[in-house]
Every structure is written in structure tokens, then in C-alpha cells.
Amino acid sequence: MDAIQTLSNAVPELRNSFYSSPVIGGMTQYTLWMVIIFALVLIVVLTAAKKLALVPNSKFVNLVEYGYDFVRHDMGENAIGHGYEKHMGFLATLFFFILIANFIGLIPGFKTPTGTISVTWALALISFVYFNYYGIKKRGGWGYIKSIAPSGLPAPLVPVIWFFELISLILRALTLAVRLYGNMFAGHMVLGIFALASFVFCESLIAAGNVVGLASIFWFAFLIIMYALETLFAFLQAYVFTILSAVYISLATSEH
User: Fold this and answer.
1) pLDDT computed for residue 119 by the predictor
2) DSSP string covering 135-200
3) Contact 194, 186 (CB under 8 A)
4) pLDDT at 255
5) Per the confidence metrics, is the pTM higher than 0.70?
6) If you write DSSP's letter for every residue of 221-244 in order, what string do you get?
């Protein structure tokens, strides 16, 4: 029971460790890691671009090219269709930034910027402004406003459907931000709790010879399983955020 009580007391402290706190002047740990990951993305892209060859012989370059091709085919060409090339820089930047941020957060002691709502809100607003900008650019301001409601509706239904479609349009930014934040925050909390449980129960077994401490074996097994799942979720969340942004670009710029 001592181990359980210790774990119960440690969980609030774990939760508080995920809150934003200043580390350098007024810069929070999440802002600091956002800058670090931005630099990492820049280094990865510039290094890969420098080593490009007709027949790549570097595993690093092959990996980056594979990631780019994945974004180009699955998110650009398939989701947007004609004219997707002009959006590839934006989509690839989104994907690689979120992917690297999510993976960095899996390293003990490191923080992922996508684990705080302020950063995911910023990413969602960037995506929101981007696809609306291109929608307005293609249709014109008034044309884009009218296109929010599908064409061919009976006249009395147009203002009603337009209103609900406008709410749906605005909610896209909210869902992008909350989905990414919620999944990454919850995943890291679960990993933290399993890691704490493994440590606390193992400590109880070693220090007091308490048979309850044998539960540390099961907690550690769960930790490994959850770590593998969180690695998969880190990729999936980068994919989901980017593919939805691509779909929103398509909806804003295509004829419907």
C-alpha cells in the first residue's frame, strides 16, 4: 500500500511538470523546444538537399526522400489533386515539424511542443489562414464567402446551410489544435504514469522486500507496450494533421 500511496502522491507532480514554465528569461520549455525542433527540421532538410543525387547512396537522404514522397503522393496528389505542387512546401514543413516534435517528446527528459495547446493552436491557425488565403485567392473574397454553402441549394435553405457551414469552417482550426494536443498530452501522461509505477514498485521491492513490488514487472511491460503505441501515434498525429490540412486546401480551392 505504501507503493500505491507514493504513486498516488507523485501523479499530481507529474501532471504539473507538463504545464508551461519559464526556463530562459520569459521563454517557456515548450517555446524553447519549438525553436530547437525548428532548427532540427532546417538542418535535416538542408543536409538532405545538399546530398541529393540521381542515385542516392545515403540512408539518411533516402529516408528524407521517402518522407517527402509520402507527403507528396498520399497528402498532396491524392488529397488535393491538380495543382498540389504549389502546396508541397507547406505540407512537407507541417508534416516534418510535427513528426520530429512528436518523436523528440518520446525521449526521456525532452519536451514536445505539440504537448501544449498554445503551440497546436498556432499550427492550426497557420493551416486555417493558409487554406482560406488560397480559397480567397482562387475565388475572390465574395466568391469564396458564397462558396461556403454548396451550390444548387434551394434559395430558402442557402442562409441556413451557409451559417452551419461557416461554423464547420471555423471549427476546423479548433479540431486540428485540440486533436493533436489531446493525443500527445494524454499519451505522455500515460507513459509518465507507467514509468513512475515501474520505478515506485521496483523501489518497494528492493528497499522493503515487499511482494507488492513484483507488480513493477507488469508495469514495466505495460510501459514498453505503451511506448511502442505512442511511437505509432506520434507518426499518426503528424499524418492526420497534415492530411486534414491538405483536404481543407482542396475544399477551399476546388469547384464544389
Assistant:
1) 92
2) HHHHH-HHHHHHHTSPTT--GGGHHHHHHHHHHHHHHHHHHHHHHHHHHHHHHHHHHHHHHHHHHH
3) no
4) 67
5) yes
6) HHHHHHHHHHHHHHHHHHHHHHHH
CB-side exposure of 92: number of CA atoms within 13 Å? 20
Alpha-carbon distance 16 to 131, whole Å? 36
pLDDT in tens, 19-36: 788 888 778 888 899 999
> Do the beta carbons of residue 86 and residue 156 sit within 8 Å?
no
Mean pLDDT of the chain: 85
Residue 27 phi, psi dihedral angles, 5° rounding: -80, 125
113 within 8 A of 119, measured Cβ to Cβ: yes
Phi-psi region of 91 (alpha: psi -120 to 50; beta: other; left: phi over 0): alpha
Note whether 200 and 2 are within 8 A (CB): no
DSSP 212: G
Residue labelled with grid coordinates 519549438? 34
| Beta carbons within 10 angstroms of residue 220's beta carbon | 17
* Residue labelled with grid coordinates 482560406: 132
Q: Over the stretch 109-161, which tens digit does the pLDDT of each residue have?
A: 888 899 899 999 999 999 999 999 999 999 999 999 988 888 888 888 888 99
Cα distance between residue 15 and residue 203, in whole Å: 21
What percent of the chain is predicted at pLDDT more than 90?
Answer: 46
Count of beta carbons in the 10 Å neighbourhood of residue 194 = 20
